[in-house]
Write a structure and sequence with these properties.
Blueprint: H1 8-23, H2 30-42, E1 48-50, E2 53-54, H3 60-69, H4 78-100, H5 110-117, H6 121-149
Antiparallel strand pairs: 1-2
Helix pairs in contact: 1-4, 3-4, 4-5
């Protein structure tokens, strides 16, 4: 694989993503892996949507900051950020499709996401922390509004 030619934090992320796909049963076949390597060699990151349109990068700024925080260069290669963003979007898309198959058809609810990650202790703990923090923020906002507006 060509991981030596990309940034260190992206290489770690690719390895983790590959392991997750293997352990979750979503292992890609040989043809997909070869296509992925060809994309890396060509510098093509899946940005072109055809018909002369390109997909807007949604997470570039955040991913650059995260990559720097995990030890990459302050200005990582654009290709590395693009590949990482493609992985993130693929993960979100897969999780959303899986979540839509549970519960109410065609709707994604928090409980569906929690159900999907229940077997991954690290993700489950993080989601639990974020949901708890969200509830605390809601209560704090409500108390602040009541204090200011005297409901």
């Amino acid at each position: 694989m060509l991981l030596g030619s990309i940034s260190p934090s992206l290489a770690i992320c690719c390895r983790r993503f590959s392991r997750e796909r293997v352990f979750s049963g979503g292992m890609a076949d040989e043809e997909d892996e070869a296509g992925f390597e060809e994309e890396l060699e060509d510098g093509y990151g899946g940005v072109d949507m055809g018909h002369g349109r390109t997909r807007k990068r949604l997470f570039s700024k955040e991913l650059r900051c995260m990559m720097y925080g995990f030890g990459d260069d302050q200005n990582p290669y654009t290709e590395s950020v693009d590949i990482l963003e493609d992985l993130v979007i693929e993960f979100i898309t897969e999780m959303t499709h899986k979540a839509m198959s549970f519960g109410r058809q065609g709707r994604v609810q928090v409980e569906d996401i929690v159900f999907l990650i229940r077997k991954d202790p690290r993700k489950f703990a993080r989601v639990k922390d974020l949901l708890t923090m969200n509830e605390e923020l809601k209560r704090a906002r409500k108390a602040f509004d009541e204090a200011n507006y005297g409901s």
